[in-house]
Design goal:
The protein is mainly alpha-helical and about 80 residues long. Helix content is about 70%, strand content about 0%. The chain is built from four helices and no strands.
Length: about 80
């Protein structure tokens, strides 16, 4: 990613973060930030109960073969 593209992406992310109204999303992003700075413990501890349930549900779906490839997903969207 070139410097110009990187700066554009950063600005878009800042604008998006400023528009967030979902506390759990802001909390998740803050956990990522703290983790990247080496200031947090286990990222799992910073998740909301809802986030944990969703992640565990996704893991169960994967283990049970209830997932699709990214290619199949995008093809389905493109082809209706």
């Amino acid at each position: 990613m070139g410097t110009s593209e990187l700066n554009t992406t950063k600005k878009e992310l800042v604008d998006w973060i400023e528009s967030l109204k979902d506390d759990s999303m802001v909390s998740l992003l803050n956990s990522v930030k703290l983790s990247s700075e080496g200031k947090s413990g286990d990222w799992w501890d910073g998740l909301t109960e809802s986030d944990r349930v969703n992640i565990l549900s996704g893991i169960r779906d994967f283990q049970q073969g209830l997932t699709m490839s990214s290619k199949d997903f995008w093809n389905g969207l493109a082809n209706g």
